Amino acid sequence: MLNPATPANPVPHLKTALSGPLPDLEKRILESQPAIEHWFRGQWQEHESPFYGSVDLRNSGFKLAPVDTNLFPGGFNNLNPDFLPLCVQATQSAIEKICPDARGVLLIPESHTRNQFYLQNVAALTTILRQAGLIVRIGTLLPEITAPTDIALADGRLITLEPLIRNGRRLMVAGFDPCMILLNNDLSAGVPDVLKDLDQWVLPPVAAGWTTRRKSQHFAHYNTVVNEFAELLKIDPWRINPLFERCGKINFKERQGEECVAGYVSEILTDIKAKYREYGIDHEPFVIVKADAGTYGMGIMTVRDASEVMQLNRNQRKKMAVVKEGLEVQEVLVQEGVYTFESVAEAAAEPVVYMIDHFVVGGFYRVHNERGQDQNLNAPGMSFAPLAFWSPCSTPDHAARPDAAPNRFYAYGVIARLALLAAAREIETLSAAATS
Amino acid sequence: MLNPATPANPVPHLKTALSGPLPDLEKRILESQPAIEHWFRGQWQEHESPFYGSVDLRNSGFKLAPVDTNLFPGGFNNLNPDFLPLCVQATQSAIEKICPDARGVLLIPESHTRNQFYLQNVAALTTILRQAGLIVRIGTLLPEITAPTDIALADGRLITLEPLIRNGRRLMVAGFDPCMILLNNDLSAGVPDVLKDLDQWVLPPVAAGWTTRRKSQHFAHYNTVVNEFAELLKIDPWRINPLFERCGKINFKERQGEECVAGYVSEILTDIKAKYREYGIDHEPFVIVKADAGTYGMGIMTVRDASEVMQLNRNQRKKMAVVKEGLEVQEVLVQEGVYTFESVAEAAAEPVVYMIDHFVVGGFYRVHNERGQDQNLNAPGMSFAPLAFWSPCSTPDHAARPDAAPNRFYAYGVIARLALLAAAREIETLSAAATS
After folding, report:
1. Do strands B64-70 and A135-140 pair parallel, antiparallel, or not at all (unpaired)?
2. B305 and B275 within one domain
3. pLDDT tens-place string over residues B145-154
């Protein structure tokens, strides 16, 4: 891990000739801070914030937009340790609002027990919850764990995974009946029976897992949120919103549905070109094709021309066909590609913003040596270097330039919160569907 | 101002031979963290937190107790600047709960415009509120300010004081009709007419000012809070609660009511002696006599024997007779003195803990070169050096010793929150009395 950025070296260098429009957007956001915060307050009165979330942003200098919203965020270990108190305070807020009676929390992590980075995230989350005054135990979905099992972290700490026990409508581990289940598992493999029909709080709800969640639904909600917000700020919503379309009934292996994908790729490229012309942007538009359900950067490709979709070779089709846990890709999101023009020592960087309750609690840059500015930086098997934000996203400096570090971080926090608000509305829809 | 304490030099040295009992209390608090936080969550469901508050603590090594709770806290400028994000997040929480519709806040500070330290506090508060996304203007009660007036701070910043305008049941400054009035003025001089019968939010309510507030009422509520808390932790409530009694109908100048004070001094000294014997504490008990209403360390004296009260000379009686704004002392609090055995470079130090909403957001040590361990350290005309806490009070380290810095800070935060909870109940009583 890189050392956290410092005031002396606060943010990746924004490598773009187009420095005009983004500072303009940042200026707008900065000037509108009271209106923005007032608007958010109103929104959070109407919509319950997800327990936590992280948002991948892309900053092209002319556009600042979320490209992925994770409702079961890993990577809490990558945050600046100085922000731990912010995480603790936000967790206390969340618990107070959602389940003030909670004393005990059962954390259910992903089942990859050999990924040191992920295990460190579990340890970081456990620390945050304990500091917030909760009793925390970790229950695993791994069937091979039949007794409490210590797993050593690289730094010498231990975390203990325990087998889950289902008792009527309660999920427990030995001698511990928690008030609340905190999922840090995105349920890519489906909703396990032990998690069904519980009378405990399950956060986020199982309906937010990838069995039922769809990126296209998330971005549809994001559209609505952005349109309201753009109206408030009098900005072109495109400046913070990537175009997208969705194709169902896809089978990459059998070459089914490729025409749908190619058609939308073509449409979206045309729309981006029009926007680039409007803003005088001299870059080649690109589109990202990715699985509509699923995560971990699997099943993702960068496309610059519709013909590429029709000419996928066997290997490429295989890669696109399955995501995590072998889930087959049947639906696809075709999304406007947003360049990342931020870089750290020549390597492409993208900001990831973390929230607990509706508070921004930190973030980091994903820094990639081997990937381009038009590629997904959250790819499997590729080791990104996390660069922790040196300042939180809540302390803009009105005396400084709009693109000064605290102000850029504030803009990141605003856009990330728009995505979180979309996720809140999305979870409402998913939960309503699950109970109907 | 001293530099903030650092991890290398984290807390004042606790100078006491009696290192046994306090680490024991700290250990108890640390072990009980989940129970404590759960209990506080329940309390804050039932009682609305004051908007903000600061609590003066005294730590004698065998006793850790609040001696004063300020509902209009100055000194935000003394907090560690690294905790600004915590202040901002807590302010957002407070606004959301109390008045989510608020956009504009009118801050009403104390009227001493020549006290640079206080003006820096006003600037710090303004920054916190602005970072939380509010529009802030500062309205003054000073009649001589009839037009917006810039006042320069020592660091070159400006704050602008504006004359108040009363318009029907609204309090405004020119062109600004705020949703909320934030009082940073303790109303020692009484409740001015402009603040009466407003239909805006006034926080804290005017009933919390010194016209109606009494320390004895606060500590009566604190008694109740501590008894519940001590039950939860199975500790002797005396360990965190100073004994007190109250005398009314006092007139120091006319030597009226001195018998009452002397009587209670004698009683309390006897009770302290019994407690010191029980715990094997080899120190001379002392008592603090102070005005039951009022602040700024005026009208306070340290007494070791009841006879001292009867033998006050003319000068001493004059000193005790009036507090801030010439308010005459008619009621007196007789309070168990708590030694401060914390010291910084041989100077006596006492911790002051700051809260916004019900969250601890930082604190500092008041460090005095010229005052003893049995004296009030918040005295007029005496310049204390503030030493900012280097860590917030929300991140105890369960792997460290109970008296390690983060754990001592956590204990401070717990005791301070008990005092804040007492203040919440006190404000309920005061508000009910004001509207009945």
Report:
1. unpaired
2. yes
3. 999 999 999 8
